[in-house]
Amino acid sequence: MLVNKFIAHYFCMVNLKTGILLILVLLLSLEIQAQDCKLAIRGKIIHLENNEPIEAAYVWVVEAQDGAVSDENGNFTVKNLCSGTYTITIQYLGHKDVRDTVELKSNTFSKTYRLEEEAMGLQSVEVHGHRDAVQTTTAVSSLYGDQLEESRGENLGESLKRISGVSTFSTGNSIAKPVIHGMHSNRIMIMNNGIRLEGQQWGSEHAPEIDPFLADEITVVKGAETVRYGPEAMGGVILVNPAPLPTKTMSKTNLNLIGGTNGQMGNINMVHVAGSDKIKGLGYRIQGSAKRSGNVRSPGYFQENTGVSELNLSSSLGYSSSKLGVEAYYSLFHTDLGILADSHTGNLADLEAIIANGRPFADGEFSYEINNPKQRVTHNLAKLKSHYHISESWKLNFQYGFQLNRRLEFDKRRGNLNEVASLDLQLYTNTIDLYVNHTHKNELSGTWGVNFIQQANSNVPGTGVTPLIPNYDMMNTGIYAMEKYSKGPLEVEAGLRFDFRTLHTARFINQELKTADLDYQNFSAFLGGLYHISPNLTFNSNIGSAWRPPNVNELFSEGLHHGAAAVEIGDPNLKSENSYKWINELQYDGRKTHLELTAYVNPIRNYIYLNPTGEVYVSLRGTFIVYEYTQANALFYGVDFAGSYEFTDQISGYLKGSIVHAKNTDEDNYFPFIPASNIDWGISYDFAKDNNPRTNKVTLSNVLVAKQNREPDFDYAPAPPAYALFNVSYQKQLSIGNDKLNLGLQVQNLFNTRYKDYMNRFRYFTYDMGTNVLLKINFEF
């Protein structure tokens, strides 16, 4: 109780502390600008042939006799320069040198440099594949390197919680959907190696069908990105990108072994990457992973039927030359997920009793067995992409993607029907993207394109149950254009898009065929800018209009959604959502300090949400909570903050958090399932000696989550109290000849705290996971 009171008081102070943080950052910027010779030259270095960022390019400022090396995103900064004229040279092996003259006045100079490939007879020259750099003026955060390695073994949603402003909407401990600024499901687009991931993502318990082991980098774009990606990106985009394919002779293998005590989880992943020694520019990658875990343990008992079984594969083959690039990619994701047995109750009295009790009545026992209710999901994705350089400044791109998603949900049924799925869906998706990039040596660049999406969803007959959603065919065509102008410390970009969508549905209800034909169309646009206030301080602002037509489940759901253990009722009269998201970010990068502050406001007209009705549905299969899809005008707004500080060469700390408000402006109350305010902080001690690049550190962290007091007028149970979780981790890196061994030990929920997360739909029935000890071994050879 004392901890909870402290947390509640702490969150009352959040707004005050955020204001103090703002003032601190502004004071730092004023201090920097007041000093003499504190100007900077900063920029971004990318490949001319494919817009991929160049890491480790060498930048030299001749007159200052000082330089820098570009980072993994192609960015560089040369600081502590006086006003005057400077000559810059940029060098990267296998590319033509760039020489530029820069006039520094009172502001930071910023520019994007595009390096052209130069034919050289060296075996060490490496031109990477076809992954475009993320170039946008909206807020962007990424997981890569050590942070990504720390997240191995977690699902995508849990991994992304390391980024401020990102949380999860979960159904138990094994199903988690990413949430960006309160948005999830069909408002967040996930890109798997450049292809929009299309599964049955509308369900609250439908986790993304993607293996995080695929990724070399995971990027979160927090702004409204419907112009770049289409209507489903109104809440943000998650880019899951593997490493670029090699184009020189090389061979590398990466092995991950992970074990966890809670659920007795085992996870293995292996990826092999190689470049041809006979055909210059040809490379391939093969990857596979498997995961198995049993019943999750909460403090004091097991959650029965919460096991997971997963098997994933992917492969890529690519060729790149100075004029032409081609890549073929395939991935397979397959999982069996147990659904908490106690979420399916026998009658109304049982449902009321378990909600009142707050946990299962039986302590359960450990088992790897997965029984009904359960899910079985298989997702196939194939991609073919190519690009051709029309000229030095113009590039033509083509991409085709095919996906087949098969979702089966099994419920508790009698006799032989127990082996028959209650929900059996097949979703076919074809996507075509055709676009041109123009990148000039002056300040202007842009992209013009068209994309086409065709979907066909079928209910496989034989379930013996009326389908939750109808069969449907959907087609969407989008035409868009984006332009970017960079000059000195300022970057400005704008874009415009038009989408047209048709939807045709059909299904039998009580032996009567019901059909619907719907059309949707709309424009979307954005305008953004980035300004380098000083060498250390950057401000960017982006405002974008967005829209999203209602999804089939929101329109036509009618019946029991077995995996969610709930009855869901759609509304065929729902209108399209329309929004304007204005997002602003301030970043400070000092020698020891890094600060980020993001603020946003997002009014949404006709916001669609799943609302608890207060009713229950009683049937032979059990008693279930009833939800209905409805809409209202909404106002989302909030703040993210993140910072880190190096106290000494060995001691460092971090702090991050977020606050989200989601107001129903029609009824003057709040929407359900919006993340509570939270803070995550930690301190690390690095045992590695000076000039030793290898990691050898221990980190103690603490997650504070407030009670969600901004909740709707009705819910089946009150929001759970605030909670505090402590975690500890240790990372050690060893060199074995030319190979690298990474060891990790993590203890999550160190004190086995009993808690419930408001964003867990099964909080009505159970507490969350207790202590979990993870051992992680990564071997690169």
TrEMBL record:
Give a GO molecular function annotation for the protein: siderophore uptake transmembrane transporter activity
Question: What keywords tag this UniProt record?
Answer: Cell outer membrane, Membrane, Receptor, Signal, TonB box, Transmembrane, Transmembrane beta strand, Transport
Q: Which Pfam families match?
A: CarbopepD_reg_2, Plug, TonB_dep_Rec_b-barrel
Q: How does it sit in the membrane?
A: Multi-pass membrane protein
- List the subcellular locations: Cell outer membrane
TonB-dependent receptor-like beta-barrel domain spans which residues? Answer: 345-750
According to the entry, every stretch annotated as the TonB-dependent receptor plug domain falls at 134-237
GO annotation terms (biological process): siderophore transmembrane transport
Per the record, the similarity remark reads: Belongs to the TonB-dependent receptor family.
State what protein this is by name: Iron complex outermembrane receptor protein
